[in-house]
Amino acid sequence: MDLHLLKAIATPDERDAVDTHLGPPTGGWDGGARRSRDAHTASGGHEARAERHRLLPALHAVQSRIGWISEGAVNYLAERLTVPPADIFGVATFYGLLSTVPRPPRVLHLCDDIGCRGKGGDALCRTVEQAAGPAYHGPDGTHHTISEATAWMRSPCLGLCDHAPAALLTEAGPKPAARLFGPVTAAEAVAVLEGGAAPAGRDRIRIPQAGDPGLRLLRRVGVVDPASLDDYRAHGGYLSLRRAFEIGPDAVTREVTEAKLAGRGGAAFPTGRKWAAVAGQGVRPHYLICNADESEPGTFKDRAVMEGDPFAVIESMTIAGFATGCDQGYIYLRGEYPEARTRLSQAIEAARRHGLLGPNVMGRGFRFEIEIREGAGAYICGEETAIFNSIEGLRGEPRNKPPFPFQSGLFGKPTLVNNVETLVNVLEILRIGGSAYAAIGTEGSTGPRLFCLSGCVERPGVYEVPFGASLRDLLTLAGGVAGGRPLQAVLLGGAAGVFVRPDELDIPLTFEGVRAAGATLGSGVIMAFDDRVDMLDVVLRIASFFRDESCGQCVPCRVGTVRQEEALHRLKAGRARGGLPTELALLEEIGLAMKDASICGLGQTAYAAVESAVKRLHLFAGARTG
């Protein structure tokens, strides 16, 4: 490829960051010193372009070393990977955690999303702004010039809603670091901005049921040492993989099918059918992706499992790979989860050292490897086909279906995608058997389910219950509304879910139960709002979230999310266009257009919470019309 390179030159540190990740260049055709033969022969071509999947990790390497990605760094990456600079710039600007403009090496991200907002997150940001100056990237998109070594930014949900308000501190340099922490106070945030360290010593994982003998998915979290393979095995670890080898891949899939396990990521697709479809494809290789990019506001259950029981993720992926004929697995991990990355990396290395990953797993002749690929702050990359593009080094935009992932997924090959909770359920299925697992819960919703309780509850955290428990049961487990205050509403399923009223708390938390109630389980979010919360502010933040996170690929979502937010702002200001009924009708029309015509779930669900606020909560009843 004849690349038109930029004139900018990478600094020695930028080159070193890239070379540390990609390896040293081999000659003048890939960014190294020119050799005499380079004038007569070309190298790279298809072989070099096949390395494009290393682009996002290389961008991470530069961001982590320098703090931002300059034109010089883009130019050098273009030479190394034979990718046009414009393409690289398009990828780098797609992700919220990457910056193509100068940024201080230390950045404090303060969450102002719906979970933290109800716990004072927005007020915290305003206080920090008064004490330390404006955010680096203002709400209007303006970049503010900051001379200090540390800047702060408003952030969407960081996945630490049980410790709201949450913060993420990233530090670039030769030894980059990142820390997710909370709850954070204004004084602590200002101290960090003045050069102090992030507060330490707080409990990272909240499992209020920890130690309960009835737990299945969470029984080891908070009990075993997450860094110890021996401790994991002493608590039943790797017995399920051993059984999988004993009964064979087809029998494993039959057990999963008999268990009636449905996906826990939101779509609830039958897992056994998905596994069988991938296993039945004659094209090789097959790939496995563990979707650990839980970016749905209010969701943090996968983080708790990855940080507290990382070997369970590795073992369950190995079983899934064995059953479906995959020899390579990827964990697509949220970029905002540094502790989970550390735990999973340690688990992968320990498993490899003990023959539980590699060319001959458990001496059974099965080859399986796992690689972590880190996201960079893009909610849309939780969509399974957007993950493919992200891993391949493209913008993380969803693909049209068909072809479906089991036919043509990552690198155009059959691919299995399951989220963390779905995978760890497989360990329980093989431990007790598919029929016994199917007896847990209800006929249409089998097994245990994890729920993320946050907001105005007494004991926020991750809870495990069998399918069939009611919304009231979960709120009771969490101690009810904090301080005994009146409950105003509950958000069920996350930002892509729906609001329910206090008189709807007896909804059974099953797929069929919420469907009958016109709701959704989504990613397992249960966020409570007491009588003090401004629900219009919450709904506006949800609309703002979808507008920000729309990838912009399809018109209904790209335009609809903007128009939806504009209509809500007019309603809030009492300037309804044509009167309240007309404005609400317009909002409904926008929502239906997004639902019917968007190519992926983001646009299709962007109106769900807004619609429920209007129709279930009667949010605009009696509103001024201007």
Describe the fold and architecture:
It is globular, with a radius of gyration of 24 Å. It has five domains: 12-92, no CATH class; 106-193, Glutaredoxin (3-Layer(aba) Sandwich); 229-438, 3-Layer(aba) Sandwich (Rossmann fold), CATH 3.40.50; 448-530, Ubiquitin-like (UB roll), CATH 3.10.20; 535-615, NADH-ubiquinone oxidoreductase 51kDa subunit, iron-sulphur binding domain (de novo design (two linked rop proteins)), CATH 1.20.1440. The model has no long low-confidence stretch (mean pLDDT 93). A five-stranded mixed β-sheet has the order 7-8-6-5-9, with helices on both faces. The chain has 626 residues and is α/β, with parallel strands linked by helices. The protein has 25 helices and 14 strands. A hairpin with a 4-residue loop joins β7 and β8. It is 40% helix and 13% strand. The longest helix is centred in the C-terminal third of the chain and has 19 residues, at 555-573.
